């Protein structure tokens, strides 16, 4: 997790993708993972392409299929506004590879989607469980601070439009305007403390056993239990409670 990795906007070209990175979930055309492919325009001849990308991220030992139902309903509700991308680069045992590794994969995947959909203008992330941490790491990598020109343009926009509630000087995520970041049951502070794993029902004995067996979940287990101490750096989740190095973990969201 070297700080210099943020500059890696020239990552491997979406090598982690098990399928094409760009697709629109359709309410009527559903693929194997609950995600159909499409051009963004409906079959009725509408020329308007959706401009809001929603990226969904699964949790530990999960897959893109976990979000198929929700993605379909996103499209049903806003058929002309959103493109839903159910991330597929971190699934099954690949979710044991560590938050940082999975975050880089997700960042590459998002870039591949944005590159093949030039009409996109906005981006949101919806994530479950460990997926929330993966998304936060990816967002820190994808974050682009606002330039002075951007700040001036936003200032002019705020002056001319009193209804605007976007903070001035807001940066971009993968070149898009950030809109929403939503997580469900995400252990943002890890699972080491008491009652941080609801499944164990507050049992100190079971929590102690889980701590000792965290290696079963690979590097992700180390990250969740704050057992990763490398190069005299604090545990990764502790780094992520603030802006650490050149990664804007907090400012970006």
UniProtKB/TrEMBL annotation:
User: What Pfam families does the annotation carry?
Assistant: DUF676 (PF05057)
Positions of the region Disordered?
27-48
Domain (DUF676): give its ranges.
49-251
InterPro entries named in the record:
AB_hydrolase_fold, DUF676_lipase-like, Lipase-like
Sequence ranges of Gly residues compositional bias: 33-43
Put simply, this protein is called DUF676 domain-containing protein
Source organism per UniProt? Triticum turgidum subsp. durum (Durum wheat)
């Amino acid at each position: 997790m070297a700080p210099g990795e943020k500059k890696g906007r020239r990552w491997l070209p979406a090598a982690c993708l098990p399928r094409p990175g760009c697709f629109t979930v359709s309410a009527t055309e559903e693929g194997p993972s609950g995600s159909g492919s499409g051009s963004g325009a409906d079959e009725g001849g509408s020329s308007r392409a959706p401009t809001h990308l929603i990226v969904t991220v699964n949790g530990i030992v999960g897959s893109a299929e976990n979000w198929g139902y929700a993605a379909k309903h996103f499209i049903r509700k806003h058929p002309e506004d959103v493109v839903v991308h159910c991330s597929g680069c971190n699934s099954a045992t690949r979710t044991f590879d560590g938050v940082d590794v999975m975050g880089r994969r997700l960042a590459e995947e998002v870039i591949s989607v944005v590159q093949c959909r030039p009409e996109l203008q906005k981006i949101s992330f919806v994530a479950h469980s460990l997926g929330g941490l993966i998304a936060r790491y990816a967002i820190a990598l994808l974050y682009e601070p606002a330039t002075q020109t951007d700040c001036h343009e936003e200032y002019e926009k705020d002056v001319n439009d009193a209804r605007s509630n976007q903070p001035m000087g807001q940066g971009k995520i993968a070149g898009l305007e950030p809109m929403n970041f939503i997580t469900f049951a995400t252990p943002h502070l890890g699972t080491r403390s008491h009652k941080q794993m609801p499944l164990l029902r507050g049992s100190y004995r079971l929590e102690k056993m889980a701590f000792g067996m965290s290696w079963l979940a690979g590097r992700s287990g180390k990250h969740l239990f704050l057992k990763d101490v490398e190069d005299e750096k604090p545990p990764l989740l502790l780094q992520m409670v603030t802006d650490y190095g050149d990664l804007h973990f907090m400012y970006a969201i």
